[in-house]
Amino acid sequence: MNKSLFIALLLPVLLLISCVPQSDLTYLQQKNTQTNQIVNEVSKKPYRIQSNDVLVITIKTLDQKLSEMFLASAGNNAGQRLFNEQAIYFDGYTVDDHGSIRIPVLGDVFVLGNTTDEVRIEIEKRLLDEYFKKEANVFVNVKLGGLRYTINGEVNSPGTKLLFQEKANILEAIANAGDITMVGDRKNVLLVRQMPHGTEMYNLDLTDASVMQSPHYYIQPNDYILVNPLKQKSWGTGTTGIQSISTLISILSLVTTVIILTSR
């Protein structure tokens, strides 16, 4: 009788601790009474180029054949290049460890710490000073070769990803990886970022709406995102109530069988 009572009391306790609560699965919850929160101004600052970034540079003039000599990949398809990840790798301009890129004819252009607009202005100035007159209508366009990042852990599609957009937040990056699994810890997502002075690590709680005010809410090129598992995964008891009940019923059946056999 005591054993049966103990099992009856143990069953709901195990059921409660083994399930993943809804509060651990819901993004951007309002955990305080403040409303109309303002996103941190730090996230609105323009991105400044770092080593290993890849730039996509387009140079156009009235004489397109003449301007093609400044492109990394000239020829008949020069105007249609850089539409996929492979082409960006071969035709883009990678920032070296000294903070420079090498452009045909122009040579080295220092870009480290500059914005894409500042790089565009510098290239336009050098072209007009050294090779073209104002009447040539020089047009330069400089963009990042997408937002490349790596995501691992409890996501449905881990690996290195590339987003073809100027800015993306960490929720978009996770959605691009198929979202976090049921046993992923949304309250403690690790963001590893390469900075000029070294590596920095940040922990983000994606269940709290205040994460949108974090200066690390928007990802940067070469970021690494790690989603660690919840304890429920190592327990192996199931993530939902149905799964947990099924597991506990199996355990209860096993315990009952052992009690019957040992009581004989």
Automatic annotation (TrEMBL):
<feature type="signal peptide">
    <location>
        <begin position="1"/>
        <end position="23"/>
    </location>
</feature>
<dbReference type="GO" id="GO:0046930">
    <property type="term" value="C:pore complex"/>
</dbReference>
<keyword id="KW-1133">Transmembrane helix</keyword>
<dbReference type="GO" id="GO:0015159">
    <property type="term" value="F:polysaccharide transmembrane transporter activity"/>
</dbReference>
<keyword id="KW-0564">Palmitate</keyword>
<keyword id="KW-0813">Transport</keyword>
<keyword id="KW-0406">Ion transport</keyword>
<protein>
    <submittedName>
        <fullName>Sugar transporter</fullName>
    </submittedName>
</protein>
<keyword id="KW-0998">Cell outer membrane</keyword>
<dbReference type="Pfam" id="PF22461">
    <property type="entry name" value="SLBB_2"/>
</dbReference>
<dbReference type="InterPro" id="IPR049712">
    <property type="entry name" value="Poly_export"/>
</dbReference>
<comment type="similarity">
    <text>Belongs to the BexD/CtrA/VexA family.</text>
</comment>
<dbReference type="GO" id="GO:0009279">
    <property type="term" value="C:cell outer membrane"/>
</dbReference>
<keyword id="KW-0625">Polysaccharide transport</keyword>
<feature type="domain" description="Polysaccharide export protein N-terminal">
    <location>
        <begin position="44"/>
        <end position="143"/>
    </location>
</feature>
<keyword id="KW-0472">Membrane</keyword>
<dbReference type="GO" id="GO:0015288">
    <property type="term" value="F:porin activity"/>
</dbReference>
<dbReference type="GO" id="GO:0006811">
    <property type="term" value="P:monoatomic ion transport"/>
</dbReference>
<dbReference type="InterPro" id="IPR003715">
    <property type="entry name" value="Poly_export_N"/>
</dbReference>
<keyword id="KW-0732">Signal</keyword>
<keyword id="KW-1134">Transmembrane beta strand</keyword>
<keyword id="KW-0812">Transmembrane</keyword>
<dbReference type="Pfam" id="PF02563">
    <property type="entry name" value="Poly_export"/>
</dbReference>
<keyword id="KW-0762">Sugar transport</keyword>
<feature type="domain" description="SLBB">
    <location>
        <begin position="148"/>
        <end position="227"/>
    </location>
</feature>
<feature type="transmembrane region" description="Helical">
    <location>
        <begin position="241"/>
        <end position="261"/>
    </location>
</feature>
<keyword id="KW-0449">Lipoprotein</keyword>
<keyword id="KW-0626">Porin</keyword>
<dbReference type="InterPro" id="IPR054765">
    <property type="entry name" value="SLBB_dom"/>
</dbReference>
